[in-house]
Design goal:
seven-stranded mixed beta sheet, 37% helix, five-stranded antiparallel beta sheet, binds zinc ion, elongated, 12 strands, alpha+beta, 443 residues
């Protein structure tokens, strides 16, 4: 990334020259700048509302020269990944040189190049808290971070429309939690869609995360057709009801059973619950529940509090082409990033970003009939599975899940790492967490 240093008194040969420099600066530094004045003798540029960044350039009265007269080069805003100044016209100028040297360059390559260089379509949001009164630097404090990469968004379109939501604790000095949305590709492999680092799992943080996720996945109407799977986390259910009322939800049966077991232990009841969860038609589910009632009326009433549409296959919708009853991919994600969870924020984000970047276009199209998919899954291993399996940190899938043909292999260190660092560097480096709590152990 080019470094821009604005100095009062700098000369520009023309107005366009200055505007060009401003546009390049805006794109490279991720700032949504706006020309507030733009006439034959003056140009004034400002950053978005609330930020004091400003530059003013004027034409010299004696000669054909433009000079930077005033600049306030300090931003109080965060980096933006939807820079409006990045237009096709600007981009075509950047690509002119490479096109001249390689006139046979394909559109596909140009697209990939631009995507890689400027990270088009990815979403990175930093939530901040306004500085407290009496603080010295008046800078806002870091609160939350959200990352959703463009490739993940794209891949999700070709995947099973089931999203697993889960949170896990960060073990570093500053505490906090990671919230993650994990999808499932047609090969039943893990597809990280988005993740966020937040201060804790509560209604407010889940709402913030889900709002951004819904935006990234195509809006509310689109998301109402998806299925969300969770462990009934604190704050998540009210946030879901508020943002996506009546959307299909599933509760992880392993998690449901763990709660159930505390009050009603026993192998017999366990088997009944799993049989009821995996029942493929309503009568089978009813039969198992009747059996449970005969054994333990109280246990039956406890289970009936959660309607079967949340946990039994017999009541699931078929449209999302997925019948899993456990949220194991979310837990696998948490364990893949286990080592990083005790590291500082940028380091935490890297494995998650790397994981997300390793996502390739799924090999199977979901529009194909289920039978064709089955055969393809078994004969054509996905790209990931052909990697040498050096280390597998995923927990093996247990009961009630369609087992992936090969275990998920976390990607090794890649050169994309530096790109990831660039991407999240500027926003995270000057962060100051406000809350310091001792994290509770989970997993
Ligand atoms: Zn700014």
């Amino acid at each position: 990334m080019a470094d821009f240093k604005w100095e009062v008194g700098s000369y520009f040969s023309s107005k366009d020259d200055f505007k060009e420099a401003i546009t390049s600066y805006a794109v490279h530094s991720g700032r949504n700048l706006k020309f507030t004045k733009n006439d034959n003798v003056r140009v004034r540029v400002k950053c978005k509302d609330g930020c004091d960044w400003e530059a003013y350039c004027a034409k010299s009265s004696r000669e054909e020269t433009w000079q930077l007269r005033k600049v306030n080069d300090v931003h109080s805003c965060s980096r933006d990944y939807n820079v409006k100044m990045m237009t096709t016209k600007w981009l075509s100028k950047r690509l002119q040189k490479s096109l001249k040297t390689n006139p046979r360059m394909k559109i596909k390559d140009i697209k990939a190049k631009a995507q890689k260089k400027w990270n088009v379509g990815s979403t990175v949001k930093v939530g901040v808290e306004p500085s407290q009164e009496g603080s010295q630097n008046h800078l806002p404090y870091f609160k939350r971070l959200y990352i959703c990469l463009a490739a993940c968004k794209q891949s999700f379109k070709f995947s099973r429309h089931v999203i697993g939501l889960d949170g896990c604790f960060l073990k570093g000095l500053c505490g906090g939690q990671i919230l993650a949305a994990i999808g499932r590709d047609p090969n039943d492999q893990m597809l990280p869609i988005a993740f966020a680092v937040v201060e804790g799992e509560n209604r407010d943080s889940w709402t913030w995360f889900l709002e951004l996720l819904i935006d990234d996945l195509g809006g509310k109407n689109e998301c109402l057709t998806y299925t969300f799977m969770s462990d009934q986390q604190k704050g998540l259910l009210p946030a879901m009801d508020e943002l996506l009322p009546n959307v299909e939800q599933r509760f992880c049966v392993r998690h449901l059973y763990n709660n159930f077991r505390k009050r009603y232990p026993g192998k017999m009841l366990k088997e009944i619950i799993w049989r009821a969860a995996k029942a493929t038609y309503a009568q089978a589910w009813e039969r198992e529940m009747k059996r449970m009632r005969l054994i333990n009326e109280e246990a039956y009433l406890h289970m009936m509090k959660t309607p079967p549409r949340f946990w039994s296959r017999s009541y699931f919708r078929g449209t999302n082409k997925c019948d899993v009853v456990v949220n194991n991919l979310s837990e696998s994600f948490n364990s893949v990033i286990l080592e990083a969870r005790s590291k500082p924020l940028v380091t935490v984000s890297q494995p998650a970003v790397n994981l997300s970047q390793s996502v390739s276009q799924p090999a199977v199209n979901l529009s194909q009939p289920a039978s064709a998919q089955g055969s393809k899954t078994s004969t054509q291993p996905s790209k990931k599975s052909t990697q040498p399996s050096k280390k597998t940190t995923t927990r093996p899938a247990k009961l009630g899940v369609r087992r992936p043909t090969t275990p998920f292999v976390p990607p090794g260190p890649t050169t994309r790492l530096s790109a990831a660092k660039n991407m999240i560097g500027p926003t995270t480096r000057r962060t100051t967490p406000t809350k310091r709590t001792t994290p509770k152990k989970k997993n």
